[in-house]
Amino acid sequence: MRSLRELFGPRGPFASELGAYEERPGQLAMAEAVERALREDRLLLCEAGTGTGKTLAYLVPALLSGRKVVVSTATRALEEQIVSKDIPIACRALGIEPRIALMKGVSNYLCRRRHAEFVKSPESLRPGYARSFAQVQSFVAETETGDLSELAGLPEDDPVRLEVASSTDTRIGSACSYYDECFVTRMKREAEAAQLVVVNHHLFFADVALRGPHPARVLPDYDAVVFDEAHQLEDIATEFFSVRVSSARIARLLEDLQRALSQSGAADPLFARTPVAGEGPSGVLALVERAAAAFFAELGARVESGEGRIAIEPDVFSGDLQRRAFELDSALEGLAALAASAAGRLVEAPDRVTRRRGEALSLLERRAEQLREQLSIVVEGGRGRVVWLERTPRRVTLSSSPVDLSILLRERVFERVPACVLTSATLSTGGSERPGTSPFAYVRARLGLDDPTQPVDELVVGSPFDFARQAVLYTPRDLPAPGTVEFLDAASERITELVSLTGGGAFVLTTSVRAMRELHRRLAATLGGYPLMVQGEAPKAALVARFRAAENAVLVATMGFWEGVDVPGRALRLVILEKIPFAVPTDPILVARSRALEEAGKNPFLELSVPAAALSLKQGFGRLIRSQQDFGIVALLDERVHRRGYGARLLAALPPAVRVTDLEPVRRFWEAADR
After folding, report:
1. Domains in the chain: ranges and CATH
2. Does the pTM of the predicted model rise above 0.85?
């Protein structure tokens, strides 16, 4: 077998497979480090700068390792890119045909049972559902995978799509009469037979959760895992291991149970003697609805109004609110008993259709019991967790999140999986938080990799791009401080000057929705000659496609565009960062984590907020230079990088572009680069 040096060399198969191939020493260094980690069961942290070719650098050794490898990445879009683009390139160059499987969460697949039930339900006849229903019917007749992403014209929140999608709440499992032809079943069988399985971080942690106290799993057994976009691991793990009780979730449970009872012929007289004294099915459903409404109304009265996440202190759940929580728990207990009673009458029926309806009702019983359990976790609180509330026009959500995931990740991932590779373009913070420590100190602490008894290999692979030639970093000193009333006006004027200089082709990236809207409103009055777009007016992919096609557009967006957006070429030549992307200081999870660091005698701002902002800044900067031919300007409009002590650390984390503080050098750079 040829060595990695030969494979990635100028006369190797990748040079033949890829046009305009360039040998990249950093790519080879990373591939050799990954190969060693897989061969010797090691743990590797690898930051691979933009343009390194990190995906092939881990795919090639993974495919050649002979081991069963899981590749976990941040989003479904990245999963699909790896499977449809990167893996085929690697396999053609290597001359191999390994079995590959793509796994997504079950909600991404059509459920044949739910589809069949929906077809027979009165809802399918609603005139407003006609167009969507027709699309779903065509999809069912043609699809081989059941992957709902193939329904590109159907929004993710379309009610028909929600009616037919699989979910962990609605899957019956092997007892389902559709089990053998189920799309999720097929997906899992393909993963069992595959050498390399591509998943996303959410699905990976779903597997981790089941492999904990329960003898179950989502993924097949594997020998090694590669975490791509590993800088997102803590946030995604926090989201996954949070517990949520929402008004919308309760409403959905009631709707599903009402439909299941109706389709089972469970009219009130038939089920008059339910476990809830004096209540038929309709009365039980109404009781839960009233109890939920009363609980969330009382909660709203106790909690101050505001945007975003609002921390809930443990003593809030007392008095009337505690009584409302008990009433909701009792109502949900009655609901579970109703579902169990209805199921018991059906699961022993001689015909399969009736038994299947009984199985569906048993599943609804388990959903009601799970809601009770999670309501108890939220209301009772507990050490190591933080409770918070979030309101939207459609729902109220009450959540309980873990404060520290480091022990869980260390014990249930890094100490159990033989070989682990964590890679991203942004893992180091450019300088250690304390002299003499690792540039990965922040991510190691957050992910539980700071135990001195656990060896961790570290590698920083710089970008092959010539940032000193291709980019200038403009950090003006003369703008008002962010947060002052003058800032947005001054910032919009400076943005207009910069956009006029480059002739558009600009991302304006903000740190909040409010700032995004305010800057968009101001720029609409000053940028009349350029197509002006704003996040939210169309799906993300559609906005990026329109931006790329226009070549002189200006897109105003918030944190969703700071990373994961790839616009190589002249279409994007100016990236403006409104201010340093510090996390919201009042966010309940951040507050709880800061308090924990303070109790440990540490400075939470310097050890948590600053390094996190450094990684986000690197991601924002990374939108600009995506190829050797790209050039342009990054502007950070936050004068605190000059005035505050942490500013030098933030700037040190960024690529080595030319640094300027005045507009004139920016103009000279642009005139020279744009010839």
Report:
1. 4-99+194-236+405-461 (3.40.50.300), 106-187 (no CATH), 242-402 (1.10.275), 467-673 (3.40.50.300)
2. yes
